[in-house]
């Protein structure tokens, strides 16, 4: 059992060792002041009749651990072997806060009378309708136990605290008002007792979900301990830490602190480890995704191999892991052509096409995410579109246009709509694949947006001569267009789009002939008389054709 006398000797030695330090002089002076205050408190306890009290013994162990960490910082400042000024300044601030908590804890056990008690009175949790004052009293009791209790008292206090904060948001609001409770939770993340660490991580994960308290956690120095948990904590602790960091980094201002403490390396290590569970990998991907908005951090991620790592995760059988990794790839490459090229070289486009493949065992949600990523990463470049066609993407897209769930089918239509606005070769490929007959089916959809996308896409495809000929070969296609035109109200948006398609078809002899010989010609003429957009042009083209037909009859009579 650690003795008070041993702690006094270590603290006194540390004070002496720190005096020659020349760098960060003000910060070291503050730490020395706090060490001297701590030494005075320990000296007062040296003659206490409860030296063997387990609560005090646990506190002395914590003080010795902090002193050991401080020795390491002091050595690096003496040798000038620290890696960066900002990081060292932050570490010294954290160390000062630790010693300050030790001083408060010693004061707390003295004033609470715990040193002379062989037992402690446990305050019961107030009922659901308890007033704020009762809850504050309960939280203060839990705080005292987390500060000065033995291992079991701390563990039970953390369990009780977690049960309360996950039950109702209002308890989190009251909790944060209790002074020093956030600082204590932060300190417990560095506990050598893994059970204490993981329970603290679970509570912090809940609090970090509240936007109004993220700044409180950041101000208490939460990032460094969370990264250390990621590096060496238990699996459950790591999961809580990763979830907390994901929530905290939703604000890009906090990205630098995660990077400064080596968070990127720790997160990538989690993503590459075969032993990491889904509950850990998903938030780890989420944190990395939140950090890519900072160019310097993004470049470091790329250097550390983030792209191939996350491409590999996109092939996971777990939906949540797939979606998280695809979101990361989309974010890191969305506005950077060089990164987009890297994603392509590393097999990222092929991986996304595999997720989208109807033959894969992936969920609809994963496919939707893959299709969105394919659109964002590939549709802006003819080269990437050719790559997609080589991987069989056109056939996949057509499959979901025919057979997909409503959500996937709508996304497939939007993707087809965008592709139709690309190169002539892309349009030809879509015509050959059979997209036109499928787009026709959407022309009488209930949604105007769907009808509009289908009509614009079809109009774009039939602008290609080869596609026009293919389209009019099927009498049902032209007949269906004319039938819809007859049903639509005059001057409606859909009617104008249908006329636009028919106008394109008149560039083909067989198309003009089929329209002119249909029973819908008078209807088209009425539309022209009603000043419907492009209807007059359509009548003129058809009339020219009809006039020539009359002449042919006269000449051959």
Automatic annotation (TrEMBL):
InterPro entries: ARM-like (IPR011989), ARM-type_fold (IPR016024), ARM_PUB (IPR058678), Armadillo (IPR000225), DUF7032 (IPR054296). ARM repeats lie at residues 262-306, 305-347. Residues 153-354 form the U-box domain. The keyword Thylakoid does not apply. Keywords: Repeat. This is Vacuolar protein 8-like. PROSITE patterns: ARM_REPEAT. Gene3D superfamilies: Leucine-rich Repeat Variant. It comes from Populus euphratica. Pfam families: Arm (PF00514), ARM_PUB (PF25598), DUF7032 (PF23005). SMART domains: ARM. Residues 5-114 form the DUF7032 domain.
């Amino acid at each position: 059992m650690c003795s008070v006398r041993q702690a006094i000797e270590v603290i006194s030695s540390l004070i002496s060792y720190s005096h020659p330090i020349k760098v960060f002089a003000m910060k070291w002076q503050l730490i020395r002041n706090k060490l001297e205050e701590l030494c005075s408190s320990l000296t007062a306890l040296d003659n206490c009749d409860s030296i063997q009290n387990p609560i005090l013994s646990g506190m002395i162990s914590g003080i010795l651990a902090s002193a050991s960490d401080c020795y390491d910082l002091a050595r690096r400042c003496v040798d000038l072997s620290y890696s960066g000024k900002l990081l060292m300044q932050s570490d010294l601030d954290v160390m000062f806060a630790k010693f300050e908590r030790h001083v408060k804890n010693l004061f707390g056990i003295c004033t609470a009378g715990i040193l002379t008690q062989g037992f402690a009175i446990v305050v019961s949790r107030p009922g659901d309708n308890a007033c704020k004052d009762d809850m504050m009293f309960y939280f203060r009791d839990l705080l005292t136990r987390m500060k000065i209790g033995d291992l079991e008292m701390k563990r039970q206090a953390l369990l009780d605290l977690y049960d309360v904060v996950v039950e109702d948001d209002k308890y989190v609001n009251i909790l944060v008002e209790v002074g020093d409770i956030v600082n204590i939770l932060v300190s417990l993340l560095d506990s050598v007792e893994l059970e204490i660490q993981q329970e603290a991580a679970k509570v912090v994960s809940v609090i970090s979900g509240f936007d109004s308290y993220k700044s409180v956690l950041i101000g208490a120095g939460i990032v460094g301990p969370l990264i250390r948990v990621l590096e060496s904590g238990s699996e459950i602790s790591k999961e809580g830490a990763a979830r907390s960091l994901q929530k905290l980094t939703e604000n890009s201002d906090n990205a630098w602190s995660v990077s400064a403490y080596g968070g990127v390396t720790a997160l990538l290590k989690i993503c590459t480890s075969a032993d990491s569970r889904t509950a850990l990998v998903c938030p780890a991907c989420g944190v990395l995704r939140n950090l890519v908005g900072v160019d310097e951090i993004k470049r470091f991620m790329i250097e550390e191999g983030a792209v191939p790592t996350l491409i590999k995760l996109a092939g996971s059988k777990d939906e949540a892991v797939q979606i998280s990794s695809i979101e990361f790839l989309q974010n890191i490459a969305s506005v950077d052509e060089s990164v987009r090229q890297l994603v392509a070289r590393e097999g990222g486009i092929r991986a996304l096409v595999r997720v989208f493949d109807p033959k894969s065992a992936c969920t609809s949600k994963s496919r939707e995410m893959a299709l969105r990523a394919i659109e964002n990463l590939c549709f802006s470049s003819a080269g990437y579109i050719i790559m997609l066609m080589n991987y069989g993407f056109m056939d996949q897209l057509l499959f979901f246009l025919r057979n997909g769930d409503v959500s996937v089918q709508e996304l497939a239509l939007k993707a087809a709509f965008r592709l139709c606005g690309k190169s002539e070769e892309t349009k030809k490929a879509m015509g050959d694949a059979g997209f036109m007959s499928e787009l026709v089916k959407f022309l009488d959809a209930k949604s105007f947006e769907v009808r509009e996308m289908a009509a614009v896409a079809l109009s774009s495809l039939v602008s290609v001569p080869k596609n026009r000929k293919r389209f009019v070969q099927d009498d049902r296609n032209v007949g269906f267009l004319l039938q819809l035109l007859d049903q639509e109200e005059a001057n409606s948006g859909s009617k104008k789009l249908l006329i636009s398609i028919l106008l394109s078809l008149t560039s083909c002899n067989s198309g003009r002939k089929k329209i002119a010989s249909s029973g819908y010609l008078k209807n088209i003429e009425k539309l022209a008389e009603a000043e419907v957009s492009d209807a007059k042009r359509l009548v003129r083209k058809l009339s020219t054709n009809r006039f020539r037909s009359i002449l042919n009859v006269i000449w051959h009579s």
